[in-house]
Amino acid sequence: MLAHHSFTTTAELKGEHHMVPEVSRRQFMERFGITIGALGAGASSLLLPGTAQAQTPAPGPKPKGNIPDKPYKTGHMTFFTGPAAVLGEPSYKGHMLAAEEINAQGGLLGKRKIETLKADEAAGTDANVKELRRMKLSENIDCFTGVISSGNTPALGPVAEELKVLTLFDDGCTDFLFEKAVPNPHYVFRVTNIQSADGIMAALAASTAWPKITKIAHIHPDYSYGRNAFDHFNIAMKKLSGNIEVVSEAWPKLGTTEFTAHITKTISAKPDLLFCSVWGGDYVALYKQALKYDLYKKMKVATTLAFGVAPHALGKDHPEGIVAGVHANYHFLYPAGNKWPLNAQFVKKYYERWKEYPNFEAEGAYTSLYMLKMPVENANHLVGGWPEDDAIIAMLEGLMYESPAGYVYIRPDNHQGYKDAITGFAMQSKDYPFPIHDPKRVITVPIRSITAPPGYAKGEPTTTYKWIDETWPRVS
Amino acid sequence: MTPAIRPRLLSRLEVGGGLLVAVALLAVPLVAAPFQTITVCYGLVFAIAALGFNLLLGYTGLLSFGHSAYFGVGAYVTAELVKYLGWTSMEAYVVAGIVASALVAALFGIVCVRYTRIFFGILTLALSQVLWSLALKLFWVTGGSDGLRVPTPTLLFGTLAPTKDKMDFLAYHYYYYVLVLFAAAVAVMWLIVHSPFGKALQAIRDNETRAEFVGVQVRKYRWIAFVVSGAFTGLAGTLWVPLNGLTTPDILYWQFSGRIVFFVVLGGFRTFWGPIVGALAYNYLETYAVGFTVYWQLVLGLVLVLLVLTLPQGLAGAVEALSRRLRGAPAVA
Predict the structure, then answer these.
(1) What ipTM does this complex have?
(2) What is the set of domains in chain A, with CATH numbers?
């Protein structure tokens, strides 16, 4: 993330933006800092090392001043019912694990135990808005966390600002949130990676694995997330492969579990590649139905969220070799082995607590609470006593935190969290009862290579889209 | 003409009870927390929709399963006025919402009122689903499933701008605004159902053939009732948008129509006040069910089952029956 690769060409220095520089695929990969497979060093790394100790995090510095012992109330909203619950339940489990760990040390600043109210995101956007208001105005929550759907954060973000409630979204990561819905956030933050990274990672993986693909079919859920994936995949592919052609588009409604019509439409278009951002229980239904039609033998497939669900939600029948996205965020086997002990420790603790492996939502929700704990401690260190929200916010802005997934950076200007992006290719392993990423083909990319930097002029449909269009070289 | 001969529009009990409720509603923002006030405000808005709906069900005998359409039209017209014209005046929204929903109801009504019973219900359902799919698929116009955001409007022809704290504004100024329109809606609906037109609708409900024999133009009267009902529901949709801050296709979906039916069944469709009581009660029930359990759908389902089994006349119907029994008056069938 910190390594520097220069991209500037002479033409750009002279301000000649009309010329798109061309580079070879190899040069492109080098300049972007794209790493393939370097994280998983052989099959042994698939197993978590026995040496990883489930350490309790070191307690923070001794709190200054008088801290009330009133519980710190958080409201955690995620999908507990419906097809999205296979993504949502782990979010709650990650949150609770962190809360239990922090409470075992006496709570925030050793005094304030974390209490969690939960709410079902499946109640619908309007009911969610009402519920957030109820949580703040009636239950007096101190902090609001969770939220999976990109259809919900743009609705809840402005409400959180109106209510002046400190908010750490664990997902719902649409670029739209901080570009349009809450352009000047004060109370609202988001911890997981920005959404545009998702479509771009799928394009990078697909074009690296299969450089000759030209005809592309799409299946996306019909809401902002699907459109975001569609746009960013296309603009990245335009740079990476040049002459791509969209031969089919299908837009099932979010929450659909019947995909036959979309599958047959896709097959009849005879694409080289299917790009698909369907997620949650919808995705599980889709891959099982696609298997019946031999879809995976007829085309390559790239996804953004195949491995977004809780790992055990996928079966031994899951196809191998497809790009299995993790929302460009996290898969529990990486960073692998003992390369990044924080991950091995987190996975071990999560497994011991819940008897299952975490997904990226679990990691995001777990990290969110710790990213609250650290600023609270830092603010207390400076001002003493229980810090005001504004002091916590000042500490959160620009925070760099070491999460199980790697370093997370909260950009002060837009309150968005950034970490290096990851995706991989599905394979079945004898070590797990569900598919995992092929350790030799895990792809990681410095987030700075695939997202618009601070200060870049806003654009349509997103700033990152415009930034790619204007600054990426074209692979020749 | 002596007043004693003329039937009274309101009984003494109704005047007294109405005054009591009016004082209570006026006092809400002064005594209750902002959250409670906003919850009551949602309830009042839903009550306007329920009143409109009950003109068809309770007074004309037509069960519509598509009232989400008019609620949605009221809401989306407001959102589109913001998006394309940048209007901020609540009065403009209200007029536009009523006109647009009445127009859509007039159009749908031409098709629907030709049928009764299940055929009427299915037709209204189907037509509302058309609007729902349009809202979902015309992404560039309606925002698709993300919906459209609506900022807090200015009230009283632009003279009352939203204050910095939106919650305070909604829980005070906007609440009273809704309360006034709610009172107006109740008064207008009361006049409608007690007018000769309203009596004709009830005649149609009780016996269509006889009504036709005494000269009631059944289809025309049903159509007018349909349009009025749509306009009331549209007004509710318009008032709901600023409260919610955004509008999504959820409110055009058949489940929302089902919710309006739930309001009225909960309160009781055989009384004038039933739908109002039902809407307020349902809103509280849902708000707290979602807040206290992830099995909130189960809670609502159980309530509905228990209600139908034990209080088929709804909350208001049960209270009315009880008060009749206490006064020793004969029960009505």
Answers:
(1) 0.77
(2) 1-476 (3.40.50.2300)
